[in-house]
Amino acid sequence: SQTIHQWPATLVQPVGSPLSLECTVEGTSNPNLYWYRQAAGRGLQLLFYSVGIGQISSEVPQNLSASRPQDRQFILSSKKLLLSDSGFYLCAWSLTSGGINEQFFGPGTRLTVL
Amino acid sequence: KQEVTQIPAALSVPEGENLVLNCSFTDSAIYNLQWFRQDPGKGLTSLLLIQSSQREQTSGRLNASLDKSSGRSTLYIAASQPGDSATYLCAADTGRRALTFGSGTRLQVQP
Predict the structure, then answer these.
(1) CB contact under 8 A, A102 and B32
(2) What are phi and psi of B24, to 5 degrees?
(3) Which residues of B touch A43 (CB under 8 A)?
(4) Measured between alpha carbons, how far apart are the two ends of chain A, in Å?
(5) pLDDT tens track of chain B, all 111 residues?
(6) In a 3-state reduction of DSSP, which class is residue A37?
(7) Is A90 touching B (CB cutoff 8 A)?
């Protein structure tokens, strides 16, 4: 069966510091990968998605970036965090088959920027 | 642009009641609609996915329906239990990779 891991689970960082969040998927090959952010009182917002190694699409322009160095690894980064980057970051994967794109989510990373 | 709305935002019911959560979407050209459960501080758990060609899906005490023409989906929970307490999110897949999420319904089932 497939599993998805995210770390760290929680993170407290000062404004202006760098960020690296990691997501890995086990038990599948060539998945679609996604980074979402869930801010307090707001819905989930898609940040990035990837359909293959080195292929990243950005949905929202901001000071975050994403990379996919391996098939089942997705990394969310920032060079300098802003207060507004605080939130709950969720990684997800899917396999598109017959028009179905069912997405499965990881446990999330709670980021607090002070 | 697809917009997804969930009503009510919060719901409190006594244990044992049957209940319905509502989800509406503005663009009927969807591929699928997916229902999720989120416990506080946790990730999302996929509950049901309804393909655009289907009208409903069932899993245990859960039944989700889809009416594309009216832009509505409902999640029916039978014989609710305290363990069902969570936030329920619906999300529409319009074929653009990203899911468009509603803001969720926070359900509290009282023992």
Answers:
(1) yes
(2) -125, 150
(3) 4, 89, 101-104
(4) 38
(5) 889 999 999 999 999 999 999 999 999 888 899 999 999 999 999 999 999 899 999 999 999 999 999 999 999 999 999 999 999 999 999 877 778 999 999 999 999
(6) strand
(7) yes
